């Protein structure tokens, strides 16, 4: 199998990736209802899918047969590509934002210029002689044919203009979104993809110009190299549009999972504290976010129940001990809270009565504080000498 046999396989791979991307974004587009940005992303991915599906030679042959017009696929694929370019421009213009009047003028300019371009492509195709079907090398085969030549050059110039404008908008925007995480990564991928689109245009236009001078030794650039570049460009652009959403979602799930696991030791330490109300039962396949909320609620409820049994003097003693040992204030406070909670739970199990001591208010307003306490519990209360810990716990029970 040589390179000519492999040439269009990337089209199929890219088409599959784009279809999967569209299927992934479709529920969000449907849920968003009237959100114009999401609708435009969905439309752009749909146009990209169309370009790669209809640009494959088997599809080209099928469309030509169905319509009964030789090489009908040429202006059809060029129109899809032109529509894709226009969709990209519209999305980037809307995505970047700005004064409403400026956005409106830019949209009208895109509609007008690319609508005119689409009309010109079909008019030139109708005027040209295209009776010989070409599935892979139409650009170079008809490079010297009147009207067909103009159609080919027009679509390439229109594509190049869209790529240049979109690249300039993206790279000017890139500096404004630095530090935004996944959005910045998506913009960079889009910028690289559109920069490679310029290489695609050069690779397609070079053999066409060479044909004007009577040379056909560069045809391989259009038939073999350009499709490989186009496939890579399609993958980069698809990733650029879906990465911010997928990345944010995966990051959120990762953070949620870490917090859920980190709160495990504290939840287990408070497991024996009677709940103020019956906990909500969750199924085995309940969403992670719901399980985290349930664990946070149970922990907060248990801490409220155990608060009257917490010894403020014990907490302060342990905190001072850790500060003296060189711990930073946050770590010292977490260690002190962990030992105080452990002693309070032991007191509740041993006596089942409220203490006369003034209840201690632990810094539990932030769940990050609870995570620190839970991690301290995972490390164990061995940060104090054993006899000192025992004495402290005994003092808490006897108070």
TrEMBL record:
Superkingdom, natural source: Bacteria
Membrane is among the record's keywords: yes
Keywords in alphabetical order: Membrane, Transmembrane, Transmembrane helix
Residues in coiled coil: none
Listed transmembrane segments: 6-24, 36-56, 76-96, 108-127, 147-170, 182-200, 220-243
Signal peptide from the UniProt entry: none
DUF6545 domain residues: 253-378
Ion transport recorded as keyword: no
Disordered: annotated span: 377-399
InterPro entries: DUF6545 (IPR046675), MAB_1171c-like (IPR050039)
Pfam families (UniProt xref): DUF6545 (PF20182)
Basic and acidic residues: compositionally biased ranges: 390-399
Official protein name in the record: DUF6545 domain-containing protein
UniProt source species: Streptomyces glomeratus
């Amino acid at each position: 199998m040589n390179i000519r046999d492999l040439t269009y396989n990337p089209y199929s791979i890219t088409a599959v990736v784009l279809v999967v991307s569209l299927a992934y974004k479709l529920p969000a587009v449907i849920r968003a209802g009237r959100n114009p940005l999401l609708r435009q992303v969905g439309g752009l991915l749909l146009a990209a899918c169309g370009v790669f599906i209809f640009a494959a030679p088997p599809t080209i042959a099928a469309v030509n047969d169905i319509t009964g017009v030789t090489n009908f696929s040429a202006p059809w694929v060029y129109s899809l590509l032109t529509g894709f370019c226009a969709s990209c421009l519209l999305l980037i213009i809307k995505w970047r934002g700005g004064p409403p009047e400026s956005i409106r003028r830019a949209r009208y300019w895109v509609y007008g210029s690319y609508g005119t371009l689409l009309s010109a492509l079909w008019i030139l195709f109708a005027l040209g002689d295209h009776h010989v079907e070409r599935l892979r090398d139409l650009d170079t085969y008809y490079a010297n044919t009147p009207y067909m030549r103009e159609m080919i050059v027009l679509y390439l110039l229109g594509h190049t203009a869209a790529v240049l404008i979109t690249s300039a908008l993206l790279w000017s925007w890139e500096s404004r979104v630095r530090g935004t995480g996944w959005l910045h990564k998506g913009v960079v991928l889009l910028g690289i993809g559109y920069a490679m689109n310029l290489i695609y245009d050069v690779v397609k236009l070079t053999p066409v110009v060479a044909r004007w001078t009577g040379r056909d030794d560069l045809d391989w650039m259009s038939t073999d190299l350009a499709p490989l570049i186009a496939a890579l460009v399609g993958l980069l652009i698809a990733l650029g549009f879906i990465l911010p959403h997928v990345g944010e979602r995966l990051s959120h799930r990762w953070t949620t999972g870490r917090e859920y696991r980190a709160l495990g030791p504290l939840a287990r330490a408070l497991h024996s504290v009677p709940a103020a109300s019956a906990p909500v039962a969750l199924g085995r396949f309940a969403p992670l976010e719901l399980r985290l909320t349930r664990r946070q609620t149970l922990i907060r409820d248990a801490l409220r129940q155990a608060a009257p049994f917490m010894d403020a003097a014990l907490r302060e003693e342990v905190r001072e001990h850790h500060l003296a040992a060189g711990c930073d204030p946050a770590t010292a406070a977490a260690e002190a809270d962990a030992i105080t909670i452990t002693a309070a739970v032991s007191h509740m199990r041993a006596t089942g009565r409220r203490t006369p001591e003034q209840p201690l208010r632990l810094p539990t307003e932030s769940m990050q504080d609870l995570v620190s306490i839970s991690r301290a519990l995972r490390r164990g209360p061995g940060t104090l000498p054993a006899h000192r810990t025992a004495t402290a716990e005994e003092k808490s029970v006897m108070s």
